[in-house]
Protein backbone atom coordinates (compact mmCIF):
# COMPACT_ATOMS: atom_id res chain seq x y z
CA UNK A 1 0.00 0.00 0.00
CA UNK A 2 1.34 3.41 -0.96
CA UNK A 3 1.49 5.74 2.06
CA UNK A 4 -0.96 8.61 1.78
CA UNK A 5 -0.01 10.70 4.82
CA UNK A 6 3.28 12.33 5.80
CA UNK A 7 3.68 10.14 8.86
CA UNK A 8 2.93 6.71 7.32
CA UNK A 9 5.97 4.50 6.84
CA UNK A 10 6.72 2.90 3.50
CA UNK A 11 7.43 -0.41 5.23
CA UNK A 12 5.67 -0.54 8.57
CA UNK A 13 6.98 -4.05 9.15
CA UNK A 14 10.43 -2.60 9.85
CA UNK A 15 9.20 -0.88 12.99
CA UNK A 16 8.60 -2.86 16.15
CA UNK A 17 5.95 -1.51 18.49
CA UNK A 18 5.59 0.44 20.60
CA UNK A 19 8.32 2.64 19.20
CA UNK A 20 9.36 6.27 18.93
CA UNK A 21 9.63 7.77 15.44
CA UNK A 22 11.68 10.91 14.76
CA UNK A 23 10.93 12.57 11.42
CA UNK A 24 14.26 14.13 10.49
CA UNK A 25 13.05 16.61 7.85
CA UNK A 26 10.40 17.97 10.20
CA UNK A 27 12.91 18.24 13.03
CA UNK A 28 15.20 20.29 10.78
CA UNK A 29 12.28 22.48 9.75
CA UNK A 30 11.36 23.11 13.38
CA UNK A 31 14.95 24.10 14.14
CA UNK A 32 14.88 26.58 11.24
CA UNK A 33 11.57 28.06 12.44
CA UNK A 34 12.92 28.37 15.98
CA UNK A 35 15.97 30.28 14.73
CA UNK A 36 13.77 32.54 12.63
CA UNK A 37 11.51 33.40 15.60
CA UNK A 38 14.55 34.19 17.74
CA UNK A 39 16.00 36.43 15.03
CA UNK A 40 19.19 34.39 14.86
CA UNK A 41 20.81 31.24 16.20
CA UNK A 42 23.04 33.24 18.54
CA UNK A 43 20.02 34.24 20.69
CA UNK A 44 19.17 30.65 21.60
CA UNK A 45 20.00 28.46 24.56
CA UNK A 46 18.00 25.54 23.19
CA UNK A 47 16.95 23.04 25.86
CA UNK A 48 18.02 19.47 25.00
CA UNK A 49 15.84 17.76 27.67
CA UNK A 50 13.14 17.25 25.03
CA UNK A 51 15.20 15.23 22.56
CA UNK A 52 18.13 13.81 24.59
CA UNK A 53 19.79 12.60 21.36
CA UNK A 54 23.30 13.51 20.18
CA UNK A 55 22.13 13.46 16.56
CA UNK A 56 19.46 16.09 17.23
CA UNK A 57 22.03 18.26 18.99
CA UNK A 58 24.23 17.88 15.91
CA UNK A 59 21.35 19.05 13.69
CA UNK A 60 21.11 22.19 15.84
CA UNK A 61 24.87 22.72 15.75
CA UNK A 62 24.79 22.37 11.97
CA UNK A 63 22.08 25.04 11.87
CA UNK A 64 24.29 27.46 13.79
CA UNK A 65 23.01 27.05 17.36
CA UNK A 66 25.97 27.04 19.74
CA UNK A 67 24.49 27.38 23.25
CA UNK A 68 22.28 24.88 25.02
CA UNK A 69 20.44 24.23 28.26
CA UNK A 70 19.95 20.81 29.83
CA UNK A 71 18.30 19.35 32.90
CA UNK A 72 20.86 16.82 34.11
CA UNK A 73 24.57 16.16 34.18
CA UNK A 74 24.00 13.23 31.83
CA UNK A 75 22.20 15.47 29.34
CA UNK A 76 25.10 17.91 29.54
CA UNK A 77 27.57 15.13 28.80
CA UNK A 78 25.37 13.87 25.96
CA UNK A 79 25.43 17.33 24.37
CA UNK A 80 29.20 17.61 24.89
CA UNK A 81 29.67 14.24 23.19
CA UNK A 82 27.66 15.62 20.25
CA UNK A 83 30.04 18.59 19.98
CA UNK A 84 28.33 21.33 21.99
CA UNK A 85 30.77 23.75 23.63
CA UNK A 86 28.48 25.92 25.77
CA UNK A 87 26.03 24.32 28.20
CA UNK A 88 23.97 25.46 31.16
CA UNK A 89 22.55 22.82 33.52
CA UNK A 90 19.23 24.35 34.56
CA UNK A 91 19.31 22.96 38.08
CA UNK A 92 20.88 23.86 41.40
CA UNK A 93 23.32 20.99 41.97
CA UNK A 94 23.54 19.75 45.54
CA UNK A 95 25.21 16.92 47.44
CA UNK A 96 27.33 14.54 45.32
CA UNK A 97 26.21 16.27 42.12
CA UNK A 98 28.70 19.08 42.81
CA UNK A 99 31.59 16.60 42.64
CA UNK A 100 30.06 15.11 39.49
CA UNK A 101 29.90 18.61 38.05
CA UNK A 102 33.62 19.00 38.77
CA UNK A 103 34.31 15.67 37.06
CA UNK A 104 32.31 16.80 34.03
CA UNK A 105 34.33 20.01 33.78
CA UNK A 106 37.56 18.05 34.11
CA UNK A 107 36.62 15.51 31.46
CA UNK A 108 35.58 18.14 28.90
CA UNK A 109 37.87 21.12 29.64
CA UNK A 110 37.14 22.68 26.24
CA UNK A 111 33.42 23.01 27.07
CA UNK A 112 31.84 25.87 29.03
CA UNK A 113 29.61 24.27 31.66
CA UNK A 114 27.48 26.28 34.06
CA UNK A 115 24.78 25.47 36.61
CA UNK A 116 22.22 27.43 38.62
CA UNK A 117 22.46 28.82 42.14
CA UNK A 118 19.69 30.34 44.26
CA UNK A 119 21.04 29.81 47.76
CA UNK A 120 24.11 31.25 49.50
CA UNK A 121 24.99 28.00 51.26
CA UNK A 122 25.07 26.04 47.98
CA UNK A 123 27.16 28.79 46.38
CA UNK A 124 29.62 28.42 49.24
CA UNK A 125 29.69 24.64 48.70
CA UNK A 126 30.50 25.15 45.02
CA UNK A 127 33.23 27.63 45.91
CA UNK A 128 34.87 25.27 48.40
CA UNK A 129 34.70 22.15 46.23
CA UNK A 130 35.89 23.87 43.07
CA UNK A 131 38.69 25.55 45.02
CA UNK A 132 39.83 22.15 46.24
CA UNK A 133 40.15 21.04 42.62
CA UNK A 134 41.79 24.26 41.45
CA UNK A 135 38.81 25.19 39.25
CA UNK A 136 36.17 27.90 39.01
CA UNK A 137 32.45 27.10 38.94
CA UNK A 138 30.47 28.92 36.26
CA UNK A 139 27.00 29.72 37.52
CA UNK A 140 23.84 31.71 36.82
CA UNK A 141 21.62 33.07 39.57
CA UNK A 142 18.25 31.33 39.30
CA UNK A 143 15.45 33.87 39.75
CA UNK A 144 11.88 33.03 40.74
CA UNK A 145 9.57 35.51 39.04
CA UNK A 146 6.33 33.69 39.69
CA UNK A 147 6.51 29.99 38.88
CA UNK A 148 7.50 29.07 42.45
CA UNK A 149 9.36 25.94 41.41
CA UNK A 150 12.95 27.07 41.92
CA UNK A 151 14.96 30.26 42.09
CA UNK A 152 15.48 33.05 44.59
CA UNK A 153 12.46 35.32 45.10
CA UNK A 154 12.71 38.80 43.63
CA UNK A 155 12.74 40.49 47.03
CA UNK A 156 15.06 42.85 48.85
CA UNK A 157 17.52 40.07 49.75
CA UNK A 158 18.40 39.08 46.21
CA UNK A 159 20.90 41.92 45.53
CA UNK A 160 22.98 40.80 48.51
CA UNK A 161 23.06 37.23 47.19
CA UNK A 162 24.13 38.42 43.74
CA UNK A 163 26.95 40.49 45.29
CA UNK A 164 27.99 37.48 47.38
CA UNK A 165 28.22 35.32 44.24
CA UNK A 166 30.54 37.88 42.66
CA UNK A 167 32.70 37.98 45.76
CA UNK A 168 33.44 34.25 45.85
CA UNK A 169 36.92 33.57 44.42
CA UNK A 170 36.12 30.19 42.83
CA UNK A 171 32.67 31.03 41.49
CA UNK A 172 32.00 33.13 38.40
CA UNK A 173 28.44 34.40 38.06
CA UNK A 174 27.55 35.14 34.44
CA UNK A 175 23.99 36.37 34.84
CA UNK A 176 20.40 35.42 35.53
CA UNK A 177 18.21 32.46 34.66
CA UNK A 178 14.49 33.31 34.64
CA UNK A 179 12.01 30.53 33.85
CA UNK A 180 8.33 31.45 33.57
CA UNK A 181 6.91 28.20 32.25
CA UNK A 182 3.70 28.66 34.23
CA UNK A 183 2.50 31.30 31.74
CA UNK A 184 0.64 29.27 29.11
CA UNK A 185 -2.49 31.25 28.27
CA UNK A 186 -3.47 30.24 24.70
CA UNK A 187 -4.12 33.81 23.52
CA UNK A 188 -0.73 35.23 22.58
CA UNK A 189 -1.45 38.87 23.42
CA UNK A 190 -2.74 37.93 26.87
CA UNK A 191 0.23 35.64 27.47
CA UNK A 192 2.66 38.33 26.29
CA UNK A 193 1.08 40.81 28.73
CA UNK A 194 1.54 38.29 31.56
CA UNK A 195 5.16 37.64 30.55
CA UNK A 196 5.97 41.34 30.38
CA UNK A 197 4.31 42.00 33.73
CA UNK A 198 6.32 39.20 35.32
CA UNK A 199 9.53 40.60 33.89
CA UNK A 200 9.24 44.12 35.33
CA UNK A 201 10.93 43.21 38.62
CA UNK A 202 13.65 41.31 36.70
CA UNK A 203 14.44 44.48 34.78
CA UNK A 204 14.55 46.48 38.02
CA UNK A 205 16.97 43.94 39.47
CA UNK A 206 19.19 44.20 36.39
CA UNK A 207 19.25 47.98 36.82
CA UNK A 208 20.29 47.62 40.46
CA UNK A 209 23.10 45.26 39.43
CA UNK A 210 24.59 47.72 36.95
CA UNK A 211 24.09 50.62 39.39
CA UNK A 212 26.15 48.68 41.92
CA UNK A 213 29.04 48.62 39.45
CA UNK A 214 28.78 44.91 38.73
CA UNK A 215 29.02 43.54 35.17
CA UNK A 216 25.78 43.62 33.21
CA UNK A 217 24.28 40.13 33.50
CA UNK A 218 23.43 37.73 30.72
CA UNK A 219 19.71 36.89 30.96
CA UNK A 220 18.42 33.48 29.88
CA UNK A 221 14.63 33.66 29.90
CA UNK A 222 11.63 31.44 29.42
CA UNK A 223 10.99 28.15 27.70
CA UNK A 224 8.74 27.13 24.83
CA UNK A 225 5.45 28.67 26.10
CA UNK A 226 6.97 32.14 26.53
CA UNK A 227 9.45 31.86 23.66
CA UNK A 228 7.52 34.07 21.25
CA UNK A 229 7.24 36.76 23.93
CA UNK A 230 10.87 36.78 25.04
CA UNK A 231 12.01 36.69 21.41
CA UNK A 232 10.69 40.28 21.20
CA UNK A 233 12.95 41.32 24.10
CA UNK A 234 16.26 42.17 22.44
CA UNK A 235 18.55 41.73 25.43
CA UNK A 236 17.50 38.26 26.52
CA UNK A 237 18.50 34.80 25.39
CA UNK A 238 15.65 32.38 24.73
CA UNK A 239 15.61 28.73 25.74
CA UNK A 240 12.80 26.79 24.02
CA UNK A 241 13.14 23.04 23.73
CA UNK A 242 9.85 21.25 23.07
CA UNK A 243 9.40 23.03 19.74
CA UNK A 244 12.25 21.01 18.18
CA UNK A 245 9.97 17.94 18.23
CA UNK A 246 6.63 19.56 19.18
CA UNK A 247 3.65 17.83 20.75
CA UNK A 248 -0.11 17.85 21.05
CA UNK A 249 -0.17 19.76 24.33
CA UNK A 250 1.74 22.82 23.16
CA UNK A 251 0.33 22.53 19.65
CA UNK A 252 -3.12 23.24 21.05
CA UNK A 253 -2.06 25.78 23.69
CA UNK A 254 0.33 27.91 21.63
CA UNK A 255 -1.44 28.52 18.30
CA UNK A 256 0.90 31.32 17.20
CA UNK A 257 3.89 28.97 17.17
CA UNK A 258 4.12 27.37 13.70
CA UNK A 259 5.93 24.15 14.58
CA UNK A 260 5.18 20.69 13.19
CA UNK A 261 4.90 17.32 14.86
CA UNK A 262 8.27 15.64 14.40
CA UNK A 263 8.02 12.80 16.95
CA UNK A 264 5.30 10.15 16.99
CA UNK A 265 4.63 6.95 18.89
CA UNK A 266 3.90 3.93 16.70
CA UNK A 267 1.67 1.27 18.25
CA UNK A 268 -0.29 -1.75 17.03
CA UNK A 269 -3.67 -3.23 17.75
CA UNK A 270 -2.99 -6.46 19.62
CA UNK A 271 -6.49 -7.59 20.63
CA UNK A 272 -10.22 -7.01 20.15
CA UNK A 273 -11.46 -8.40 23.48
CA UNK A 274 -15.09 -7.39 22.98
CA UNK A 275 -17.24 -5.42 20.56
CA UNK A 276 -16.39 -1.72 20.67
CA UNK A 277 -13.07 -2.29 22.45
CA UNK A 278 -9.57 -2.72 21.03
CA UNK A 279 -6.28 -3.09 22.86
CA UNK A 280 -2.98 -1.60 21.71
CA UNK A 281 0.58 -2.22 22.87
CA UNK A 282 0.92 1.33 24.22
CA UNK A 283 0.91 1.32 27.99
CA UNK A 284 2.50 3.59 30.58
CA UNK A 285 5.95 2.50 29.37
CA UNK A 286 5.29 3.83 25.87
CA UNK A 287 3.81 7.29 26.37
CA UNK A 288 4.05 9.81 29.21
CA UNK A 289 1.30 9.12 31.73
CA UNK A 290 1.64 12.08 34.10
CA UNK A 291 -1.50 13.75 32.73
CA UNK A 292 -5.13 12.52 32.92
CA UNK A 293 -5.92 9.68 30.57
CA UNK A 294 -7.60 11.97 28.03
CA UNK A 295 -4.31 13.85 27.65
CA UNK A 296 -1.80 11.15 26.73
CA UNK A 297 -1.92 10.46 22.99
CA UNK A 298 -3.74 11.76 19.92
CA UNK A 299 -3.91 9.31 17.01
CA UNK A 300 -3.54 10.75 13.53
CA UNK A 301 -5.06 7.81 11.67
CA UNK A 302 -7.96 6.90 13.91
CA UNK A 303 -11.25 8.71 14.49
CA UNK A 304 -14.06 8.36 17.01
CA UNK A 305 -12.09 6.71 19.78
CA UNK A 306 -11.46 7.18 23.48
CA UNK A 307 -8.51 5.93 25.52
CA UNK A 308 -10.31 4.40 28.48
CA UNK A 309 -7.56 2.41 30.19
CA UNK A 310 -3.82 1.92 30.45
CA UNK A 311 -1.52 -0.43 32.30
CA UNK A 312 2.21 -0.98 31.90
CA UNK A 313 2.06 -2.67 28.49
CA UNK A 314 -1.53 -2.17 27.32
CA UNK A 315 -3.76 0.64 26.21
CA UNK A 316 -7.51 0.09 25.87
CA UNK A 317 -9.51 2.08 23.32
CA UNK A 318 -13.24 2.44 22.99
CA UNK A 319 -13.92 2.77 19.26
CA UNK A 320 -16.96 3.30 17.07
CA UNK A 321 -15.72 1.65 13.88
CA UNK A 322 -14.79 -1.64 15.58
CA UNK A 323 -15.55 -3.89 12.62
CA UNK A 324 -13.03 -2.20 10.30
CA UNK A 325 -10.12 -2.40 12.76
CA UNK A 326 -7.93 -5.47 12.52
CA UNK A 327 -5.48 -6.99 14.97
CA UNK A 328 -2.06 -5.91 13.73
CA UNK A 329 -3.18 -2.49 12.44
CA UNK A 330 -0.63 0.29 12.99
CA UNK A 331 -1.61 3.52 14.73
CA UNK A 332 0.46 6.72 14.75
CA UNK A 333 0.04 8.95 17.78
CA UNK A 334 1.20 12.41 18.85
CA UNK A 335 2.19 12.48 22.54
CA UNK A 336 0.49 15.11 24.67
CA UNK A 337 3.86 15.67 26.36
CA UNK A 338 6.76 14.66 24.19
CA UNK A 339 9.65 15.30 26.63
CA UNK A 340 8.92 12.51 29.15
CA UNK A 341 7.70 10.29 26.30
CA UNK A 342 11.12 10.45 24.61
CA UNK A 343 12.65 9.61 27.99
CA UNK A 344 10.87 6.22 27.94
CA UNK A 345 12.85 4.95 24.93
CA UNK A 346 16.44 3.75 24.57
CA UNK A 347 16.38 4.49 20.86
CA UNK A 348 14.20 6.05 18.18
CA UNK A 349 13.64 5.15 14.56
CA UNK A 350 14.76 7.91 12.21
CA UNK A 351 12.32 8.55 9.37
CA UNK A 352 13.28 10.33 6.14
CA UNK A 353 10.90 10.54 3.21
CA UNK A 354 8.56 8.08 5.00
CA UNK A 355 11.33 5.50 5.22
CA UNK A 356 13.20 4.28 8.29
CA UNK A 357 16.86 5.11 7.67
CA UNK A 358 18.35 4.10 11.02
CA UNK A 359 18.09 4.52 14.76
CA UNK A 360 19.24 7.23 17.15
CA UNK A 361 20.18 6.47 20.74
CA UNK A 362 18.34 8.46 23.41
CA UNK A 363 21.61 8.77 25.28
CA UNK A 364 20.55 11.62 27.55
CA UNK A 365 17.84 9.53 29.25
CA UNK A 366 20.57 7.85 31.34
CA UNK A 367 21.09 9.01 34.88
CA UNK A 368 24.83 8.74 34.30
CA UNK A 369 26.92 8.35 31.15
CA UNK A 370 30.51 8.40 32.40
CA UNK A 371 30.70 10.96 35.22
UniProtKB/TrEMBL annotation:
Pfam family, one: Ala_racemase_N
Molecular function GO labels: D-serine ammonia-lyase activity
SMART domains recorded: D-ser_dehydrat
Positions of the D-serine dehydratase-like domain: 262-352
GO biological process, one term: D-serine catabolic process
Keywords, alphabetical: Lyase
Signal peptide feature range: none
PANTHER family, per the entry: D-SERINE DEHYDRATASE, ZGC:162816-RELATED
Family note: Belongs to the DSD1 family.
Record's protein name: Alanine racemase domain protein
Source organism (scientific name): Runella slithyformis (strain ATCC 29530 / DSM 19594 / LMG 11500 / NCIMB 11436 / LSU 4)
Amino acid sequence: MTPTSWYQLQDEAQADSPSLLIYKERTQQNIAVMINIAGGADRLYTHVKTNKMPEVVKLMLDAGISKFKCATIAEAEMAAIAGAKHLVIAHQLVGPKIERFVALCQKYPEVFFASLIDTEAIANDHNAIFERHGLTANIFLDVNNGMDRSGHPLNDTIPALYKHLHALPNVQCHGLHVYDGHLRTPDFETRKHEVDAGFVDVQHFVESITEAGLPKPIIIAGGTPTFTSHALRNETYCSPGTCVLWDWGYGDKLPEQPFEYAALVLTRVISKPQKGIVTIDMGHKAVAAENPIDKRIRFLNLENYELIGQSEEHGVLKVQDWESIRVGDVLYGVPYHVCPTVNLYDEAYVVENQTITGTWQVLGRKRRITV
